[in-house]
Write the structure tokens for this entry.
Amino acid sequence: MYPIIDTHTHCYFPAIEKDQAAIFRKCEEAGVKIQVQIGCDEISSLAALSLAQKFKGHYATLGLHPCDVKNVGIKNEEYHRYKGFEAYDLKATNFEQLFALFTDIYEKNKDHIVGFGETGFDLFHENSEEILALQKTAFRQHLNLCETYQKPIIIHTREAREVTLNFLEKEMPNRKNIRGVIHCFSEDAGFAEIVTKQYGFFLGIGGVLTYNKTEAIREAVKKTPIEYLVTETDSPFLVPRKAKNKKQRINYPGLLPEVIELIADIKNIDPDTCGHILFENGKRLFNLA
Ligand SMILES: [Zn+2]
């Protein structure tokens, strides 16, 4: 059996948290060795960190999701449902305070924090000049942290192909040695070629690869050298197709074998070899021993 790394998961969400022991046992049975819990704002970054502090093989990132750039300092009842944070008082009310806080949290938890993000562009939920400007500012702040601490950047891009490519083209030449991943890769082979060749970024491949209408993603996976691919779930979202057909509603890292087997099939290599390569790629992304 091959070891598995989930390079992008949110297991602190209540949907998983309430069933945590059973779900983590299933992950272990499936061969999951490493889970990277991704932060999306102040509280979720702390929730991600708390999992990393508690469980062996879990790591965290600190970040501000592009859909949350307007919500800094605003109490969201949903987020305050994360276990242990029900009564948490937000400390940051603006970007400056939030990224100063991330710096401070990182400095105190270097063993547990392996990257910054998710950041990036999302014009699916809102497409305005205002949000775009905020997303750009936040993205730059994440890049500053990545550069200072030599950690990878976790990039989210949705309905923002040109915006993302233009931003990277402008920003990346001024930045030194930043590793990164295009998380939940859902663009095409052309986009994949640019981000892998120009920036050496990885592509985060998950449940979306298994869906009926995602031929372009399978084509991108086929054309991209396997050393640029990493596995991710984006749990609790994006259940792979076969699991979904069996009425599975919550995604978790233990469902990754379906994705790994499809990658193996597309690449025409055996699943065990494929699994081992993808595991090593994930460790390289986050510089894990
Ligand atoms: Zn995510």
